[in-house]
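Predict structure. Chain length: 419.
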Amino acid sequence: MIRLHNPLGALMAIAVLATPLYATNGYFTHGQGAASKGMVGATTAIAQDALDAETNPAASVFLNSGYSISLALFSPKRDYTVVGNPSGAPGTFGLTPGKVSSKSDYFPMPAFGYNHRVDENNALTFNLVAHGGMNSDYRTATFYGSDHTGVDLAQMFLSATYAHKLTANQALGLSAVAVGQRFKASGLQAFSMFSSNAQNLTNNGYDTSYGIGVRVGYLGQLTPKVSIGAAYSPKIRMSDFKSYSGLFAQGGRFDIPSSVSAGLAYKPVEGLTTALDYQRIHYSDVLAVGNPLLPNIMAAPLGSAGGAGFGWSDINVYKIGLQWKQNETWTWRAGYSKCDQPIPSAEVLFNILAPGVIEDHITFGFSRQMQGPGRFNFALMYAPSKSVVGANPLEVPGQQQIRLNMNEWEAEFGYSFGF
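Prediction complete.
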């Protein structure tokens, strides 16, 4: 555990407090930096700037020394709709009918990366970025608790990467990763009877959590036209959210799930790159996320190892990206990704708090070379509206339907120097 009186812990705390987060592929972001996001994050087999080390740590050694900074404006639109009146039957928990939209629709998202090419075969990279998160802010007593209902989860990653060339065209990379996250929940008083520690269930303000993990990657340029890449991040054990030990399974534990990615990049003609990426995210690694609502909420109290969670499934993400270098000044990018639905229809009740139902992303971007080694980058992302509909599992069968809906857009501006 990283304590706040340590410089590293203080840095992570400042970064987390400054950066509210969101949902894309579940609650993982679709890429890192404007250059990557313009290709919908399909950059496991590509090296463009320092922030690519977040996707594949081996990318660093194929880059010159330099830095990348970016600022994204992210806007998720979330709402839920309840159809059908509460039955009022004993032992049921019906919700008030109607449509409610979440507030807090705009989030600034900064990122920073620095790459130092030690020599021909070695490089060091340092990045501070957001990898994921979730926010909902309903100005109503959704669950008949306080008149603000929702959650706010933010995660920031500080990574130090070492990459080494095995041969002239193949490299391995290893990142040491420090993670800081913060969380708060509001309006969940109605679940007190199901909690192992009702005092640490809801309305306790922000709590913070820290952990350390690793990420490994391989990047190989097989021919002048073909490159491949792969990366793996094992689960990161996080310190507990003690103020929410009566909500999250395992006494407030909210670990970072493991993920794996593989990519292929191909240059069919001069200046054009096509990229295919596959990613799998193991949300079931985290019991607070993967445990289902039923029968867990009846069989074990919230906060215990078997306590109810959000019932998220592991997901596969498929990405295709295109990059066209028109000339020495302009580079154009586009991408599309499709992911599995992480939220089953049986889990809609609890996921009013975390409606991460997005499946598709469409992206566009460009870079403009400035005077000297600097480059301006831009990326635009649109995630079309997606809904998940299911029955209220705590009501009489057929009495109520709950519809979760979400769409997103994001504009990111970046500057890279030296690449």
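Summary: The radius of gyration is 22 Å.
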